[in-house]
Amino acid sequence: MKILNSSCRKRKKNGKTRKRESFAKAGGSFDLLDNTDIHLHFPAGAVTKDGPSAGVTIVTCLASLFSGHLVRSDVAMTGEITLRGLVLPVGGIKDKVLAAHRAGLKRVILPKRNEKDLDEIPANVREDLDFVTAFWLDDVLNAAFDGGFPADSKHSILNSKL
């Protein structure tokens, strides 16, 4: 029975490979995520430690997972994100930056609107870190991945599907 199952699995895998090759030759794609929207919902109060401040981090993790590209290992990030890709300000910047510094990270990605909060950070800590302020999700992804993130940039709010 194991031989039959193994043989069936191989045929199924070969069939998928051939479909992918056919789609690729025709200029199409066989990506399961094509034409698919992903919506994650975190009910208020459900995850007390990872609230809205983890929005850009969660999206960056998903971008890494689905693209196969690795996020830099020396990056810390925080920021809320809208459905349209705007990065919104969050609280606790001083504590988050000091924690990133203690952890030995080199780059910190923050919402552009939190730039004023950097004045609270001790000068010696600011000198050790590379700060990237982000207004759009694309800014976050380009700073989080070495060489930027390979995606088309669309900054127009008017292009929203909402």
Automatic annotation (TrEMBL):
UniProt entry tagged with the keyword Nucleotide-binding: no
Basic residues composition bias: residue spans: 8-19
Annotated region described as Disordered, given as residue ranges: 1-21
UniProt KW Protease keyword: yes
Keywords: Hydrolase, Protease, Serine protease
Gene Ontology MF, one: serine-type endopeptidase activity
Active site per UniProt: S53, K96
Any Pfam family: Lon_C
BP GO terms, sorted: protein catabolic process; proteolysis
Limits of the Lon proteolytic domain: 1-147
UniProt family annotation: Belongs to the peptidase S16 family.
Protein name, per record: Lon proteolytic domain-containing protein
